[in-house]
């Protein structure tokens, strides 16, 4: 063994020993053996020293992820609460609701059970003024396929865990009743759709097999074609017609589209009347399967042959390693986080405390991560900060690429298990979540949310003060340690990362990151305006991602104002040089009084800050204590907002920020029913604005939209990477604190030298510099499966 220049141990293999003369060989072997023994002895001795001196790092603050006793006000329903709500409602005979396992398409059954939040006033009275604890309630969505006029119903069931009553949920901020055609196809409908598809495609299976290298849709064994859905299901309100393109069922099937798609009309209430109304094959359209088959057989169809990729060529859609790495010859591990003094955040159930910050979180089954009661140094800044909707608008003349996804409505969306060490650092604390959607009972999703403290690798603040003579007069700095709450939502092909990042200077960063497979179609030259050709004859089409967040700021209480601080240009003369005109920028505070004025459509020529404050809260300089929203990831929806487009169902995407009066009856900018009627949606966000209410000294909500265009490129294969695909907004103090609150951190370092002294004086405020503990190794232990709870 030797040590190279960088101090790494290098092992040399003696290859010549056996080829040397016999006596020499014995000598060599003995010498090598002795040396080896010495090496082992040294290593053992070193090991003893290490084990004797270095203790395992402490655990730090408590992380109790599951607490005994009643759940917190904002906690998602427990498995027991979900079961109680389900069983109660199944027991209300007049409602005629059947367990999902026994229900058909023509019965009434429970689709989702999730938390029904208490009214804000009740929650605040409990949190702030010793009011009664709000009752725990469930919001239950029922598919009423068995009603004379089929309809979607919602009931509020309470009080949990022993419910005694249910009331129909029909909030004012949306369409009531919920039209039957607005529902997502649940598993029951989907199996009927699959049946109809199978029946229809049976006659064309041989053609599929001939065209696609033996792959067929029915009785397919190992060589299966999988139909992939697109939405919306039609181009007018009430239509329910779904285009499905065949993909080859291999690893990464999302990237294996084939030039054949089918449109199924499942509008009819009677599923036996569902039928295929169009077939697309090699960019030719046919009004029925029979017509297609006949024309294929009589030779009037332009045929296509797509061989199945084999060997390395099939790996393009796989996450398994291929290619030659630009790496050291042996794989080495990358840097990892350690917590030398253990956890510096405290977890009590869904309540988290970190460096002055505190908040509660939940993971809503039908929309995503929500934070509640976010406070800094005990002062509430946000009542709610929640992901409310995500959308992806595709482009292309191919029927599946007219897709407009509004994913809150997709039952396949889910926050699944996170991998320790990859999705979250090894040091993270993981949480399980429980959901009941389109299932007989609550399902446990292991490790689906994580929280961790991060060394972001950048100083939060630093300054080197030069003495302009021989060096520094002082240096001051603080690393940006921040707490991150993360969950990742897999929506079919995409994996969307949601982060909430709490910095020590009172800044809350909200981030959405794109990852996963791109959505592709089969390349045909007429698709050239919408993307680039790629692997396996596919093309990934141009699309735009949108994320809508509800930001219920309570800055100095619930009575708030919203202003923009506008930066305008002035043309003035100045007293010290009255003979010339001076052009400069100036501030204009512009308070907004009505909802219609409080929408932001970003204009480069009119830069503004978006600030929220309370009229009677001022800082030491008599300035309103505010929190502002800063947008770092915006792009404009280019499609016109009229009946012909789907934008009605996602009207929020027209505004980077829209400020409205907060109402319990307007809990969300969207609903799980918007996807299936984007033209006349159940929740039309525009109506929140159009009543044009007063927003002065009211409880306000900012609806924030992050967005980005994605022009997919060959490096999106196999999957889109996070680098460059992160969209953020920040909720930042604006005169809220008299100075940077991180100045109080004992983790800061100040290095100065006395007058005329060359000695450095280093102040670490009691924080030790070196770590003397052994970080604990926590194995990854990935399961990946879902479990009934
Ligand atoms: C789809 O089905 C509905 C209900 O049966 C029918 O009214 C409509 O005409 C069908 N649409 C097409 C395009 O076939
Ligand atoms: C600036 O103001 C002066 C005086 O009113 C005016 O003559 C001049 O046109 C202005 N310049 C611009 C660029 O607006």
UniProtKB/TrEMBL annotation:
<dbReference type="Pfam" id="PF02727">
    <property type="entry name" value="Cu_amine_oxidN2"/>
</dbReference>
<dbReference type="InterPro" id="IPR016182">
    <property type="entry name" value="Cu_amine_oxidase_N-reg"/>
</dbReference>
<keyword id="KW-0479">Metal-binding</keyword>
<feature type="region of interest" description="Disordered">
    <location>
        <begin position="316"/>
        <end position="340"/>
    </location>
</feature>
<feature type="transmembrane region" description="Helical">
    <location>
        <begin position="26"/>
        <end position="51"/>
    </location>
</feature>
<feature type="active site" description="Proton acceptor">
    <location>
        <position position="407"/>
    </location>
</feature>
<keyword id="KW-0472">Membrane</keyword>
<keyword id="KW-1133">Transmembrane helix</keyword>
<dbReference type="GO" id="GO:0048038">
    <property type="term" value="F:quinone binding"/>
</dbReference>
<feature type="domain" description="Copper amine oxidase N2-terminal">
    <location>
        <begin position="95"/>
        <end position="164"/>
    </location>
</feature>
<dbReference type="InterPro" id="IPR015800">
    <property type="entry name" value="Cu_amine_oxidase_N2"/>
</dbReference>
<dbReference type="GO" id="GO:0005507">
    <property type="term" value="F:copper ion binding"/>
</dbReference>
<feature type="modified residue" description="2',4',5'-topaquinone">
    <location>
        <position position="494"/>
    </location>
</feature>
<keyword id="KW-0801">TPQ</keyword>
<dbReference type="InterPro" id="IPR015798">
    <property type="entry name" value="Cu_amine_oxidase_C"/>
</dbReference>
<protein>
    <recommendedName>
        <fullName>Amine oxidase</fullName>
        <ecNumber>1.4.3.-</ecNumber>
    </recommendedName>
</protein>
<keyword id="KW-0560">Oxidoreductase</keyword>
<dbReference type="GO" id="GO:0005886">
    <property type="term" value="C:plasma membrane"/>
</dbReference>
<dbReference type="GO" id="GO:0009308">
    <property type="term" value="P:amine metabolic process"/>
</dbReference>
<comment type="similarity">
    <text>Belongs to the copper/topaquinone oxidase family.</text>
</comment>
<keyword id="KW-0186">Copper</keyword>
<dbReference type="GO" id="GO:0008131">
    <property type="term" value="F:primary methylamine oxidase activity"/>
</dbReference>
<dbReference type="InterPro" id="IPR036460">
    <property type="entry name" value="Cu_amine_oxidase_C_sf"/>
</dbReference>
<dbReference type="Pfam" id="PF01179">
    <property type="entry name" value="Cu_amine_oxid"/>
</dbReference>
<feature type="active site" description="Schiff-base intermediate with substrate; via topaquinone">
    <location>
        <position position="494"/>
    </location>
</feature>
<dbReference type="InterPro" id="IPR000269">
    <property type="entry name" value="Cu_amine_oxidase"/>
</dbReference>
<keyword id="KW-0812">Transmembrane</keyword>
<feature type="domain" description="Copper amine oxidase catalytic">
    <location>
        <begin position="336"/>
        <end position="743"/>
    </location>
</feature>
């Amino acid at each position: 063994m030797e040590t190279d220049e960088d101090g790494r141990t290098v092992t040399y293999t003696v290859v010549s020993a056996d080829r040397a003369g016999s006596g020499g060989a014995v000598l060599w072997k003995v010498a090598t053996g002795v040396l080896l023994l010495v090496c082992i002895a040294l290593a053992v001795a070193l090991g003893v020293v290490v084990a004797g001196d270095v203790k395992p790092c402490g655990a730090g603050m408590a992380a109790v992820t599951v607490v005994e006793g009643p759940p917190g006000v904002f906690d998602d329903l427990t498995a027991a609460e979900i079961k109680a709500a389900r069983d109660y409602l199944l027991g209300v005979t007049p409602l005629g609701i059947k367990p999902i396992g026994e229900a058909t398409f023509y019965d009434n059954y429970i689709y989702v059970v999730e938390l029904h939040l208490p009214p804000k006033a009740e929650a605040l009275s409990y949190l702030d003024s010793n009011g009664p604890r709000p009752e725990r309630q469930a919001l239950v969505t029922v598919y009423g396929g068995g009603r004379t006029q089929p309809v979607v119903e919602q009931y509020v069931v309470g009080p949990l865990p022993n419910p005694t009553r249910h009331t129909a949920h029909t909030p004012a901020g949306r369409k009531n009743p919920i039209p039957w055609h607005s529902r997502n196809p649940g598993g029951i409908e989907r199996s009927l759709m699959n049946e109809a598809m199978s029946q229809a495609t049976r006659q064309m299976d041989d053609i599929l097999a001939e065209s696609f290298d033996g792959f067929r849709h029915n009785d397919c064994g190992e060589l299966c074609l999988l139909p992939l859905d697109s939405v919306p299901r039609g181009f007018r309100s009430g239509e329910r017609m779904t285009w499905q393109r065949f993909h080859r069922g291999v690893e990464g099937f999302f990237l294996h589209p084939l030039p054949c798609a089918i449109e199924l009309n499942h509008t009819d209430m009677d599923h036996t009347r569902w039928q295929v109304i169009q077939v697309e094959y090699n960019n030719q359209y046919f009004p029925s399967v029979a017509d297609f088959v006949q024309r294929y057989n009589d030779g009037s169809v332009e045929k296509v042959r797509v061989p199945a990729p084999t060997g390395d060529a099939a790996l393009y859609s796989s996450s398994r390693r291929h290619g030659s790495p630009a790496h050291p010859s042996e794989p080495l591990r990358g840097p990892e986080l350690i917590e030398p003094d253990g956890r510096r955040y405290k977890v009590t159930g869904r309540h988290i405390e970190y460096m002055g910050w505190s908040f509660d979180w939940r993971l809503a089954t039908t929309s995503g991560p929500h934070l509640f009661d976010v406070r800094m140094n005990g002062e509430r800044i946000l009542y709610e900060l929640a992901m409310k909707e995500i959308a992806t608008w595709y482009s292309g003349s191919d029927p599946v690429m007219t897709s407009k996804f509004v994913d809150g409505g997709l039952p396949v969306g889910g926050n699944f298990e996170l991998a320790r060490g990859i999705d979250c650092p090894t040091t993270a604390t993981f949480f399980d979540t429980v959901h009941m959607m389109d299932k007989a009972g609550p399902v446990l999703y292991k490790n689906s949310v994580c929280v961790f403290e991060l060394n972001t690798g950048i100083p939060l603040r630093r300054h080197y003060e030069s003495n302009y003579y021989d060096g520094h007069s002082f240096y001051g700095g603080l690393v940006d340690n921040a707490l991150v709450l993360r969950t990742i939502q897999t929506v079919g092909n995409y994996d969307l990362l949601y982060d909430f990042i709490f910095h020590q200077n009172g800044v809350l960063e909200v981030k959405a990151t794109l990852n996963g497979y791109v959505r592709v179609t089969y390349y045909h030259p007429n698709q050239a305006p919408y993307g680039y050709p790629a692997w396996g004859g596919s093309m990934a089409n141009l699309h735009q991602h949108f994320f809508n967040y509800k930001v219920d700021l309570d800055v100095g209480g619930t009575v708030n104002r919203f202003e923009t601080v506008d930066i305008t240009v002035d043309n003035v003369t100045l007293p010290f040089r009255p003979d010339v005109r001076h052009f400069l920028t100036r501030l204009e505070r512009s308070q907004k009084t009505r909802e219609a004025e409080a929408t932001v459509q970003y204009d480069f020529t009119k830069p503004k800050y978006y600030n929220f404050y309370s009229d009677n809260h001022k800082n030491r300089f008599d300035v309103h204590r505010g929190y502002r929203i800063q947008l770092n990831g915006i792009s404009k929806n280019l499609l016109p907002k009229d009946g012909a487009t789907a934008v009605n169902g996602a009207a929020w995407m027209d505004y980077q920020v829209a400020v409205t009066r907060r109402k319990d009856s307007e809990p969300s900018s969207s609903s799980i029913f918007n996807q299936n009627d984007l033209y006349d949606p159940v929740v039309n966000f525009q109506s929140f604005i159009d009543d044009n209410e007063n927003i002065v000294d009211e409880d306000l909500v900012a609806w924030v939209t992050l967005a980005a265009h994605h022009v997919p490129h060959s490096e999106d294969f196999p999957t889109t990477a996070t680098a460059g695909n992160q969209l953020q907004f920040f909720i930042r103090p604006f005169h809220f604190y008299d100075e940077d609150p991180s100045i109080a951190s004992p983790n800061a370092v100040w290095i100065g030298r006395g007058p005329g002294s060359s000695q450095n004086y280093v102040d670490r405020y009691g924080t030790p510099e070196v770590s003397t503990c052994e970080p604990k190794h926590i194995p990854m232990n990935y399961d990946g499966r879902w479990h009934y709870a």
